[in-house]
Amino acid sequence: MTTKPNTAAMAVSAQRRRLPRFLTPTLMVGGGIVVLITLFGLIAPFFVADPNAVDNMGMQPPSAQHWLGTTQTGQDVLAQLAWATRGSLTVGIIVAVMALFLSAFFGILGGYLGGWLDEAFSLFTNVVLILPGLPLMIVIGSYVEQRGLILIAVVLAITSWAAAARVLRSQTLSIRGRDYVQASKIAGERPWRIIAVEILPNLLPVMSSSFVFALVSAILGEAGLSFIGLGVVGTHTWGSMLFYAQNGQALTLGGWWWFVPPGAMIAALGGGLSLINFSIDGIINPRLRTAPAAARTARHAQKEAAAA
Amino acid sequence: MHIARKLGFYLVALWAAVTLNFFIPRALPGSPVDAVLAKLALRGPVDPGTRHAIEVMLGADDQGSIIEQYFQYLGNLLRGDLGTTVTYFPAPVTEVIGQALPWTLVLVGLSTCVTFLLGVGLGTVAGWRRGTWLDSLIPATTILQSVPYFWLALLFVYAFAVNLRLFPISGGYDVTLVRPALDYPFLSNAVYYAFLPALTIVLSSLGGWLLGMRNMMVSTLSEDYILTAEAKGLSPRRIMLTYAARNAVLPSVSGFAISLGFVVSGSIVVESVFSYPGIGYTMLQAVNNNDYALMQGLFLIITVAVLGANLVVDLLYGVIDPRTRARG
Amino acid sequence: MHLSRRTLGKLSLAALAPLGLAACSGQSNLEGGASGSDKPIVTTYNGSGAGFTKNFNPHSASVLSMVQGMIFEPLFYFNPLNAIDADPVPQLGESYSWNEDGTALTVTVRSGVTWSDGTPFTAKDVAFTFNRIKDTPALNGSGKAPSAEATDDATVVITYPAPSFVEGPNALGRTWIIPEHRFADVADLATDANEEPVGTGPFVLSDFTAESYLLGANESYWEEGKPAIGGVRVISLSGNQSATDKWLAGEIDYMSTAIPDLDTHVANNPDLSYTNTGTSQAALFAAANPELGCEGPQTDVAVRQALYYGMDREQLSKLAFFDLGTDISPAFALPERDKEFIDPSIELAPWNADPAKAEQILQDAGYAKGGDGIYAKDGVRVSMTVSCPTGWTDFVTALDTLKQQYSQIGIELIPQQVSVNEWNDAKSKGTFQLVIDSVGQGPAPDPFYPYHTFFGTDSTVPVGENGNPYQNSSRFSDPDVDAALEVAAGTDDPEVKKQQYFIIQKKIVEAMPYIPLLIGSSLTEYNSSKVTGWPTAENLYAYPMSWSAPDNAQVLKTVTPA
């Protein structure tokens, strides 16, 4: 039905001989970073000291005993970082999965089926889009005793899928009009099959990019909420670490080992995920990957031609 | 007909949002009376009669049923009366929003526009000129984007304002030097004070636009019509701008409308780090003080802004992408 | 994390553009230029996060800071750091006396004072103020506000419906006198914004924007040579970090903000100094009275005693209170200020933990350690939740520290962070086990006020009913204490009061509904590059907290240009 996957397969067949085709350097670097951080969050909490244990030796710079120094109250920064990594990752993944599902459901289905369903979904999406997340979080948080981690994740997900849904909808609208989709429609394909086979693959770059985006923005969102004192209570996250570092005026007192690591972890995770995203894009859409090299060769050839 | 339908649709969305705005703050715990009381308790001993005094002052002791309040709220909305704030008592909400709005519009609005133009522009070029040094821009900006706003902001304040004394530490302008007026001394001072917050916003949100645009650009470049255009021998510049970029920019434009709407809510966190007197910061105060009226007013402004921006984009979308108009 | 010189150099090269920006932005558009007068302007920050809106009505609940005392003065000034028997400092009043039964207070007011618009100030203004408060329902919720009558231009008699010695400090020290000729036509004294204030105080409003306001010196102030400074500018900031940065940069002269490691900062800059004048007594508030519906292990006095002996106050001070916490008395009177008024048999709270004694108390009361290492009696484990508002880091840290300390003596503490509203809600309804909070002071330096507010039966309600969250939230109730409070309220003889306080103290140390931690730090920071004469530990002529009225007015009219 569509010729695209075939040409794409041919374009990459030359490379397949050398390496498994998805093992690009970007993927390995990005994947490496993400796997390291994930492993750190999974394993390290079992080996570090109690992150809440206070001690009279406060604000100690990194040493053999405390690899990342201590907080003002003598809590081990490395231990806190380990638990915080676990907490933040949990938030991020729950949010990203939920947001992906919700945005795909409302965006693609509405966009493809059109009609009143699209209108209703669009209306719903728009309303959710304008719902300010911050106060909503406090509302829901007030119904339970403590603003736990899962709760914050659900709230972040509820308030963060709408933008992606809109993008997906407009993309679907655009793809829906293409010849091969029309052809399948005329051929009598069932709608869910058209969505799965014809439309979804074309949306994968956007979806993967919004998954990564949702993951990173959930972690950032949680950090921001924690920073203004409205975040997860009772679980360590990178945001809560930053909140306490900021309250303890870590920077003013020269305690970079307390303030820098959580932020750096967030940035590293975000960077790693983006690198993975580049590679996913490359796999789905070979031109993203082969194009740079092809463009380089072409330019080279032109230059040589000009020189000759 | 098409436009009338759209308008009706947005009216329904507006009504739903306004209704939610009414009920959500009312589900919040605590009362504004207790919030004022807590504020007073920080300042010194609270007289036992004070609680009643505040209730009388806020009119909290004679409320009708929730339905009555709702219709009263709708009526007041139509008259442009958003009530009285608790945080800034006795100022009306409109006045407080009016005070904060210009700061945010200018700071976050301009930063967002600059970021969008810069991101989409760089993204177009990066997508077009693949395989050059421009490719390295992408990981660099994405890492910057993954840095928490406030973390970057605090580091900037620490390095550039506290240690190097190049920039002011906080505020919207030097209160000892100028007062708000449309003249050179104030405006130059305000620009100086806005530089660091704006830099933070631009740096930490550039990556998203750049990456999104670049990816769509590369995807678009694999379309048949680009090949056709190339085969026709059109100039690369024309292909890049009229053929590729115009199609690739669609999702970004859609995203831009949304982010423009959210400009009004400001970057709560950035404004809070820099003590910048804008909407986002006001919103944080409102939430902390259970200031229903102020929160509703802010919600309303954000709602109208987002809906308006979406409406404009929806209408424009048809112009940019004719396929959207042709409904099956 | 100090940047090295080399990095600094590189960075500053990159920063030439902002320097240019800074140079361009140096112009002023204020009338008379940036400085205005040759006398220095003190910049202060009072914890105001949001911007400002005009409210210069000293009787409004949401009045701006630096209005009470600064623009509108009381009759006398009570320094909360002086003992009960010290005389207050005359302000608009010159002397006062009570009648025999404490129902009439006669005040001689200062003559020769004018309002800042030139109108003379008389006793009629004082009488007007009191009567106006009495006639404003929102300001007279209890209906017990006094009436007043000016018998001549210099004398006013304040009359109470019942004996009211303890109300004296409120009338004399915390009633802001307003001009009759400006307020006679104001419809509601509680809500008027009084945008153009006219007062007798040392400062007058001279400039106002949403971001800051400037109070200039009142040139015709009655006290000779005061104020010596040009004025006071109040700014708003988002929080402690900004305030600290600005103070260290020399942009704030006077503020009261909690800053860690102050000694280091002060040692690095000779212009900076601070005072620590703690009067707020941090304590674990226990919902202690089962008769009023309180539930949980903490309703047993033995558990509360064990908590008292089981905590290590030295570590608490070090970790949670910047190492600036000071000794507290379980009698809840300030050990220094009130030393004459504390029963000599009551010792200060032990600075270090006594785990053996704590466990002994539990065992004597019939508790035994369970398999999990936690004491229990009749199947009830000594495990309690304790809450504090989210982000109040000193309390959060204190609870983390206590949790650890108590786990060693077989008591489980479960710290919870809640919103301020939930926290207040729990206190007002009594639906908590423990909270961490402070026992505050009253309008005058007299332990009567905390005793009445936190231990009196009429300051509390049964669990489930809505009480005042800043009053007796432990639900403590004791007829002997109530009787003693009543006697103390009916006299202004310090000796009689003392005897009654001893009775109260014995009872509350025994029952310990509030488990004292320590006296927390109350820090005030100064910069003396422009202005000197700030309060010091040796000379606390006024309570120095910058947000505390009218104390800040005393400070600001006393300081002199450097």
List descriptors.
heterotrimer; A: 308 residues; mainly alpha; MetI-like fold; 0% strand; B: 328 residues; 74% helix; signal (chain C); SBP_5 (chain C); peptide transmembrane transporter activity (chain C)
Shape of chain B: globular
The portion of residues assigned to helices of chain B is over 70%
How much strand of chain B? Answer: under 5%
Structural class of chain B: mainly alpha
The CATH first-level class of chain B comes to Mainly Alpha
Name the overall outline of chain C.
globular
Distinct helical segment count of chain B: 15
CATH topology label of one domain in chain C: Dipeptide-binding Protein, domain 3
Largest beta sheet of chain B, briefly? none
CATH architecture of chain B: Orthogonal Bundle
CATH H-level homologous superfamily name of chain B: MetI-like
Number of helix segments of chain C? 16
Unreliable spans of chain B: none
Question: What class do helices, strands and sheet pairing of chain C give?
Answer: alpha+beta
CATH class of one domain in chain C: Alpha Beta
Any low-confidence stretches of chain C, pLDDT <50, length ≥5? 1-15
Number of strands of chain C: 23
GO molecular function (chain A): dipeptide transmembrane transporter activity
InterPro entries (chain A): BP-dependent_transpt_permease, MetI-like, MetI-like_sf
Subcellular location (chain A): Cell membrane
GO cellular component, one term (chain A): plasma membrane
How is this structure best described in words?
The complex is a heterotrimer of chains A (308), B (328) and C (562). Chain A is mainly alpha-helical and 308 residues long. Helix content of chain A is 75%, strand content 0%. Chain A has helices at residues 4-16, 25-47, 77-113, 115-130, 133-143, 149-158, 162-176, 179-186, 191-227, 238-247, 256-284, 286-307. Chain A is flat and about 75 Å long. The two termini of chain A are 45 Å apart. With 328 residues, chain B is mainly α. Chain B has a single domain (93-324), classed as MetI-like fold, CATH 1.10.3720.10. Mean pLDDT of chain C is 87; it is low at 1-15. Classes of the chains: A mainly alpha (308), B mainly alpha (328), C alpha+beta (562). The interface between B and C is large, with 82 and 82 residues.
Topology at a glance:
The complex is a heterotrimer of chains A (308), B (328) and C (562).
Chain A: H1 4-16, H2 25-47, H3 77-113, H4 115-130, H5 133-143, H6 149-158, H7 162-176, H8 179-186, H9 191-227, H10 238-247, H11 256-284, H12 286-307
Chain B: H1 2-26, H2 32-43, H3 50-58, H4 66-78, H5 93-128, H6 137-146, H7 149-163, H8 184-221, H9 224-232, H10 236-248, H11 250-263, H12 268-273, H13 279-288, H14 292-320, H15 322-325
Helix pairs in contact in B: 1-14, 2-3, 5-8, 5-11, 5-14, 6-8, 7-8, 8-10, 9-10, 11-14, 13-14
Chain C: H1 5-14, H2 16-24, E1 41-45, E2 76-77, E3 89-90, E4 93-98, E5 104-109, H3 123-135, E6 147-152, E7 155-159, H4 168-173, H5 180-183, E8 203-208, E9 212-217, E10 231-235, H6 240-248, E11 254-255, H7 262-268, E12 272-276, E13 281-286, H8 301-310, H9 313-320, H10 355-364, E14 368-369, E15 375-377, E16 380-381, E17 383-389, H11 393-407, E18 412-418, H12 420-429, E19 434-439, H13 448-455, H14 479-489, H15 494-511, E20 514-519, E21 523-527, E22 531-532, H16 551-558, E23 560-561
Parallel strand pairs in C: 1-10, 1-11, 17-18, 17-19
Antiparallel strand pairs in C: 2-3, 4-5, 5-7, 6-7, 8-9, 9-10, 11-21, 12-21, 13-19, 13-20, 14-15, 15-16, 22-23
Helix pairs in contact in C: 8-10, 9-11, 13-14, 14-15
